[in-house]
Design goal:
It is built from one helix and 37 strands. The protein is an all-beta fold. The protein folds into three domains: about 150 residues, Immunoglobulin-like (Sandwich), CATH 2.60.40; about 70 residues, Immunoglobulin-like; about 140 residues, no CATH class. Strands 1, 3, 5, 10, 11, 13, 14 and 15 form an eight-stranded mixed sheet that branches. Strand 32 and strand 33 form a beta hairpin. The N terminus is likely disordered.
């Protein structure tokens, strides 16, 4: 008659053996507040087994995910076929899992995940550590011979927030819109800012290359630790053609190559700041532009507060806003500035060769463009032109 492992049975059997050739384990893992994670119980076995029993104890702050009133505990399909039956029950503070084959079929293979357990961390989980314990582990072969395996303990690292690391190479800069460690479900945006003459070469997110639009990569819901690796490449155009584009009140003198667009702005709309009924609104004629602002008179950047809805103003302040239109293929951002609602107009542009000799207009090769504004601000841009 086929034997099924049950706690009342294994405690009185005199033929139970223990061996180091058969082991169960769960890899150490980290879990963050509100995070859901599937952990695998791995079996390395020299013996062909058809059934097992084990008691599982989770640390405080980590609980089983439940669906339809049942704990999410399942067999790994690669090692256990349809003939296996899984049951679980509560025994002295532990969850006892019993699995057996209806037709005495052994588990496939000799290593790898045998059991998957889906868990979730409490919302108020604090930084710290705990452990998952596997005990009373018994396996049975097709002849009913039972083997007791050594208990296993898994180290669990608790974290209240995820980590976020941004690394970038020469040729530019990258930063998250919020430097604070993100909690589960929070959003983050990575802003990528190539230097003049450079463009984004690649963004790796946790080791995998991802697509980037307008030099911005958005994570709508953070659910894991994040590592960003940003690399830049120098823009070396082959052949270019100078054209002029006018759209949405922006007039841009553009240099187009096969792979890159380098734009010099000749006229740009600025944010319009309005105060009414205790609220501040900011608008830009170019509706696709993003607006960032400060309330202390400092010059805002793309790391400043982003304007999305009217802002309640309850005390005197000096508002400074910028409108930013980023192009994923542009070597620099197109920026218009409005200070207290006043336009920072372009006063003049001067063109120079790389050697510093002033010229009347852009010419083939490397050009240095100096732009002067009414506020006194001066910008220096490098533009590469190679005519067809």
């Amino acid at each position: 008659m086929k034997k099924i492992l049950l706690s009342a049975v294994v405690m009185v059997l005199g033929t139970i053996t223990m061996t180091a050739q058969n082991t169960v384990a769960i890899s150490d893992f980290k879990i963050t507040a509100k995070e859901t994670k599937t952990i695998a119980v791995e079996l390395n076995n020299a013996t062909s087994f058809t059934a097992f029993q084990m008691d599982v104890v989770l640390p405080d702050g980590v609980n089983y995910v439940q669906e339809n009133g049942e704990k999410c505990i399942s067999l790994a399909g690669e090692r256990a076929g349809s003939s296996f039956v899984l049951t679980e029950s509560e025994v002295a503070g532990a969850t006892r899992i019993v699995v057996y084959s209806n037709d005495n079929t052994p588990f496939s293979g000799t290593s790898g995940a045998l059991l998957n357990i889906k868990v979730v961390a409490d919302a108020d989980l604090q930084d710290g550590a705990g452990e998952v314990k596997l005990s009373n582990v018994y396996f049975s072969d097709a002849d009913g011979k039972e083997t007791q395996l050594t208990d296993a303990t898994t180290a669990v690292t608790f974290a209240s927030h995820f980590s976020a690391t941004v690394n970038y190479g020469a040729g530019g800069y990258a930063a998250l819109n919020n430097a604070a460690a993100p909690a589960f479900g929070e959003a983050r945006m990575l802003y990528i800012m190539p230097n003049d003459g450079y463009k984004l070469a690649e963004l790796l997110f946790n080791g995998t290359a991802v697509d980037v639009k307008n030099n911005i990569y958005e994570i709508s819901s953070v659910e894991q630790d994040m590592v960003f690796e940003v690399s830049f490449v120098e823009i070396i155009p082959d052949t270019v053609e100078i054209i002029k584009i006018v759209t949405d009140t922006i007039e841009i003198e553009t240099i187009i190559t096969d792979t890159v667009v380098v734009a010099e702005v000749t006229e740009i709309p600025v944010p319009e700041i309005d105060f009414s009924n205790g609220q501040m609104t900011i608008k830009c004629a170019l509706q696709t532009a993003a607006i960032y602002y400060t309330l202390d008179g400092t010059v805002p950047t793309m790391a400043s507060t982003k304007y999305t809805v009217p802002v309640e103003i309850s005390e005197d302040c000096t508002v400074t806003a910028i409108a930013v239109l980023s192009s994923e293929s542009a070597s620099f951002n197109i920026v218009g500035t409005g200070i207290g609602g006043t336009t920072d107009d372009v006063v003049s542009r001067q063109y120079f060769t790389e050697a510093g000799v002033e010229i009347d207009e852009l010419r083939e090769g490397i050009n240095i463009v100096i732009v002067k504004y009414a506020s006194g601000k001066v910008e220096t841009q490098k533009v590469i032109v190679r005519k067809k």
